[in-house]
Each structure stands twice: as structure tokens, then as C-alpha cells.
Prior knowledge:
Layout: H1 9-17, H2 21-43, H3 46-62, H4 73-88, H5 103-110, H6 117-122, H7 126-138, H8 143-153, H9 158-165, H10 169-188
Helix pairs in contact: 1-2, 2-3, 2-4, 3-4, 7-10, 8-10, 9-10
Amino acid sequence: MCMIDYQDDPELLHRLSNNEQLAFKMIYEKYERFLYLLAYKNLQNKEGVEDLIQEIFIALWKKRSTATTILVLKAYLIRMCEYKVWKKNNVPKKTSSLDAMSYDTASQVLGRASDDSAMEHELIYLDQLSQFKNNLAKIHGTKRADVFIKVKVELLDEEDVAQSENITVGTVRKHVATVMKYLREQVQNKNQITPNPPHSL
């Protein structure tokens, strides 16, 4: 698999956020083959992979107004591909979407501020990923946690989540920010026992 130069991705995302179709086309041409091979390795189904790739780029286009919030485009697309592959593999319904999270998912969700770099590196270890899942599982079922999972784990569009939950996009973002703060605090205080989430969750 050839290496991808993604140094110009921030500029492409900025242009995409301004509804520039050429930028979207460039992103598609840059990553379509890479994502196809990644998905095919797991699905071994040409038609299914083609549908999956189409879903990924449709979702990216729908997210274009907030495209600049994507820190690393390549990692974001890989996460989306991983999740959609997981969904297409006929996982039993009783299995939580949390089980589909990869190391990159956790680090991307938590490592969004520059001062979190040390924590982001820690999250590559299995115990940190396990801790992340366990802390999120503690609040699973709450409104804020469900919104967070849809936006950050299932990678659904904020507007779609707002509509399905009958809330505003602003409320969606507040829920995500609240849960993110909680999860970051749990990782930073990993040596302290915190049996229950804050009452506000």
C-alpha cells in the first residue's frame, strides 16, 4: 500500500468547510483507494466495500460545515471505516457499539487539546483503552452519553443526532463536551477510584 502525504489535509478541510466541491473531490481521490483496501481486507466483498466507501464520503460531505474540527483527516476516515466494517460484519445487537472502538478512537476523542499530548500517547496501551471503555460504560444509557456515542463513536452527523434526539445542535455539542470533560478527568485521575460519575451526567 502506497504512503499517503496528508500534510495538506488541514487546508483541504478548511476548503471543504466552505462548501468547495473540488476539495471534496481531492479528498476522495486521495483516500478512496486506501480506504477500499482497508475495508476489503476485512469484508472480502467488493459490492459491500463499494457501498461502505460511498457511505463514508457521503457522511464526510454532510459534515463539511464542521470539517475543520477534524484534527487528523486520515485517522478520522480510518475510524469511520473501522466502525462501518464492524457494523457490516453482522455483530449481534446485544453487543454495544463501545466494543467497536479502536485505540485510535479513544485517542482521537480524548486527545483534542494540545496539552493532552502525553495522555494521547498513554491511550495506545490496552489498559488505557479498557479504562476509557469502562468509564464510558458507567454513564451508558444517559442522554449525554448516548449523544456522545452517536457523535464520537458511531461518527453520526451532529444535525442528524439532534433531529433523532429532538434537541438542538447546540445541545448536542454541550452533551459531547460534558462527557468529554468527564472522560478526560477519569483518564487523568486513573490512579484514583471514582466509582460513580458526576451527578450532572
